[in-house]
Amino acid sequence: MSHFRIASLTGALLLTLAALMQAQTPAARTVQDGVFTDAQAARGQTLYGQRCAGCHGPALAGAQAPPLAGDAFVAKWRTEPLSALFIKIRYTMPPQTPPAAPTPLTSEQAVDLVAHVLKSNAFPAGKTDLPAADMETSAIRWPAVTRAAAAPRTYPPAGTLAQLMRSVFFPNSNLIFTVQTRDPAAPVPPPPPTAQGVGTSVFEWGMGIYTGWPVVENAAAAIADASPLMLTPGLRCENGTLAPVNDPDWIRFTEDTIAVAKRTLRLAQTRNQETVSEITGDLSDACAACHQAYRDVGRGRGATPGAGGGGRCASRVR
């Protein structure tokens, strides 16, 4: 009995300590917590009428450009931190179309516009302005979804996981990794005279059409939007077995890849080589975590000739 009492007391103590630690950890702020002021939203409303209403409509309902208010808008952005919306506004709006490109927005103007967008979507105002400083790394998020979402429409996969990796993830991740050693905004050096018109691949031809930072943005968007395909029922591994799309680890690794790809997309819009170079480490880690669990374990055991190893797509060995 004494051993049982000691164990019970120890368990109760651990539960109490865990509860106290959780209570001391501040909850992440969301846009439901009053992160902007009415005055800031009013400044943003004035600026919106001057710089944004022509494309997005005077009531944010959309015109030549998508709407900035309503359920569809909130559903699109709530999967990312509020900083993603700030980066989108700050660095890509209004569209910079030469030769008559408009004056870029400042960080202060962009954050005022974010406040106006939040107020227009019925989020409450608070007593402190949303700060422009460090907004790119802000941890403020959207509130969690409480209602069940409609099931998305799905289609049977045409290729294998290996084909998806080699056609989408491998080339696009390498385009992003290149930022570590080369500034996408730097002029592309001309090929040597002896190489002109000789040996141009389809890949090089395509990169000659889309150049600079948009290439990095496109690569990040491709990874983010293609990653959910890894969860498609019926997707098969290179060796013909079904991919473990319902495995909790598989789902978690996929969601991690989506999150880091979206963050890479937003940071690429800042045109900051150092910032994007830093997040390439997160992208590499996301890929490596999944590879170690599903591609590299048991490689060679029961391998099918030409299948690339029996361990590919295998469940984690526990």
Helix content: 40-55%
Helix count? 11
CATH fold name of the largest domain, please?
Four Helix Bundle (Hemerythrin (Met), subunit A)
Low-pLDDT runs of 5+ residues are: 1-10, 17-25, 298-311
What name goes with the CATH superfamily of the largest domain?
Cytochrome c/b562
Strand content: under 5%
Order of helices and strands: HHHHHHHHHHH
Mean pLDDT: 82
Instruction: Calculate the terminal CA-CA distance, rounded to whole Å.
Output: 36 Å
Number of domains: 2
**Overall body shape:** globular
* Largest sheet properties: none
Name of the CATH first level of the largest domain: Mainly Alpha
The radius of gyration computed from the alpha-carbon positions, rounded to a whole number of angstroms, is 24 Å
What is the name of the CATH architecture of the largest domain? Up-down Bundle
What class would the helix/strand composition place it in? mainly alpha
- Number of DSSP E strands: 0
Please describe what this structure looks like.
With 318 residues, the chain is mainly α. It has eleven helices and no strands. The longest helix has 23 residues, at 2-24. The two termini are 36 Å apart. Mean pLDDT is 82; it is low at 1-10, 17-25 and 298-311.
